[in-house]
Amino acid sequence: MGFKRNPKLAVWKFASCDGCQLSLLDCEDELLDVVGAVDIAYFPEASREYVKGPYDVSLVEGSITTAHDIKRIKRIRKESKFLITIGACATSGGIQALKNYKNVEDFISIVYARPDYIDTLDTSTPIGDHIPVDFELRGCPINKMQLVEVISAFVFGRKPNVPHHSVCLECKLKGNPCVMVAHGTPCMGPITHAGCDALCTAYNRGCFGCYGPMETPNTSSLSRRWQEHLNVSSDDLVRAFRGFNTYAEAFRKESEAHDRPRQEV
Amino acid sequence: MVDTKTLVEKGSKTQEKKTPGAVGLLERGAFDQLFQVLQAQGYTIVGPTVREGVILYDELESPDELPIGWTDEQEAGTYRMQKREDEALFGYTVGPHSWKRFLFPPKHRLFRATRGKDGFDIEEDKYDGPNYAFLGVRACELQAMAIQDNVFLGGDHVDPHYRSRRESALIIAVNCGKAGQTCFCSSMGSGPKAGTGFDLALTELISKDGHAFLLEVGSKKGNKIFKKLPIEKAGKKEQKAADAVVAEAEAQMGRQLDTEGLKDLLYRNYQNPHWEEVAEKCLSCANCTMVCPTCFCSTVEEMTDLSGDHAERWRRWDSCFTMDFTYIHGGSVRQSTRARYRQWMTHKLATWFDQFGTSGCVGCGRCITWCPVGIDLTEEARALRASDQGELQTGMQAEA
What we know:
Chain A has 265 residues and is of the alpha/beta class.
C-alpha cells in the first residue's frame, strides 16, 4: 500500500450539476470499501463534517466561470497532494461552455431581472486551464466504476486503468453491431473517448460524445461521412459537436468549421 | 490453407485429419433433428440469428432462430438486411461477428490473486464453459480459424485458453450460395467452398423441387452426428446442384484483391505518400481490427479492489490503432494514423507471411463493410500498386 494511514480525500464543486460527485454516493456496493480505504475529509454532498487541509487527494467537479472560482481552485491545488478532475465540466468546461461562443452580456440582460447582481467571466473553462491537474476522468457523468478504479489506483500507487481509445473498441467488445454502418445512425463513437461502456449504442442510439474527444480524434473525416452518406446538415453537425464537451479543442474546432454566420432575416 | 496437420502433430487436437467423408441429403423438414442430435450430445449450438438489424452469432435453441428468409446487402461502410424471395436458412454472407468471439473471447479473466500469509495465492481460471457446435461457419471463417490456430497453438507457446475452447468445438460449415459486395475470398484462396477444417459441411439446395441440405462429413466427430440423422442418398444431381450453388457465389464476388507480388509491393512502399491519404480518412477507431476474424492482439489488465487483498488479471482484445498499443517509456512508437494504418495493412498482407507463413487476410470483407467511413482494403492495395515507387523505401523508423 502507498499509505501508512488512510489517505484524506476531499470533494470540491465548481460550476456543475453535482452529477459526477453523486457518482461517488452512487457506488452503493463499493461505497463502504471506498469509505474504508480513504478518510472523507470534505464532501458537503454527503456530510457536514469538515476536516481542514491539506488533503492527500482532491476530486474536483465543475468548470471555472467566475473570478472567485480561479482564486478558490488555486487554494485547493495548494492544499492537495494529488488533484483529480472529474466529469465533462471539470475536464472541458461542460455544456455551460456554450457561452464561450457568444457575448455573455447579451444573455445576462435577457435572463436576469437584476443583471447587476451577476458577476461572471465571459467563459467557462476546464480546471486544467488554471492549475496543473494530476489526472482527468472524463464523462458526463463519469462512470462510477472508473471512479472506483481511479481511487483504487491512487490508494495503491499504481496507474489507473482508464483507456483513451474510441468508444468503438468497447462497443465491439460488447458485441454491439455498429449503428452507423447497420442503421445509418450518426454516431460520435469513433471520435469519442471510451469509458461509458458503450451505453447508448447498446440501445441502438448513436453516441453523443459525453466523454469528449478520444486520443486521436479525426473529427473532419467523421463529419464528411455524416454529410455525404447520412445527410446530416451543417447545423446538425454544429449541434453534435457543441454538446457536453463543446470546448474540448477537437470538438470546438470541428464545430467552428461548420458554423457559418447566418444571414439576418 | 494453413496445414492443420502440423498442428495435430504438435500435440493439438483441434482438428482431426480430414478423411474423405460420406455425403448425404438432409431434407429441410428434418433439419430440426440436427439441433436435437447436437443438443443430445451436449453441444451448445452457436449460429446466425437476427438481432438489432444484423445477422450475428449467438447461442441458439432451435432452427426457428436462424435468419430464415433473410439476406444482407453490404458495401463499404454500410450493411442492410433484406428479405429474400425464398425461405433459406443460410442465405446471407457474413455479419459483424466472427467465431473468434467464442474461441478468443473479447474479455476473459486469466487468474485471481488473494493476499495470504506469505504473499499471494494465485487461482488460475480454466475454461469450464460449454462445448460449442458452431453452425454456419463459412469457408473464409474456416481459413480464419486455421490462421488463429497457427497463432495460438503453433510454435512453442500454446495458449491454453484458446486451446480448450477450440478443442471442444464442433465445426459445421456452410458453403456460400451468395457473395456480398465486399467479399473477396476467391482472391485469397479461402472460399467460397469449404475445403478442410470442418466436422460437417452443408450446402443449402433450394429449387422448385424442394429445400434440402447436402451434407459432407469432414471428421470422425462429424460422422457421429451424420450417422444419427435421417440422411437420404445424394446422387450426381444433388452434387451438381451443390456445385452450382458455390459457382453462383463465386460469380457474385464483389471485390478482388490482386495478391501478385503484394508482399514485396507493401515492403517497398513504406514511404508512399498514399498512406497520408488513407490517414486523412481513417478514424483510428479500431473497428476493422475488432471485426477481423484473424486479428489476435490483446492486452492484459490488472485490477485490485479497494481492500488491496484481491487482484485479478484480465485479457481483452486490443488494437494496433490505439496509442497504448505501442506505448513504451517516452511515448507511443506509432504516433500518426498513417503509421498505424500502414502497420495494420502491412501486417495483414505482408509481414504475416514472414511471421506465420500465410496471409493474415481471408477476404471476408468485414473490415470494408464495418469501417464507419468505408475505407476499402482492396482499394488501398490498388492505390498503392498504382503509385508504386518501384524501389525499396527506407527510413520508416524515422517518422511516426
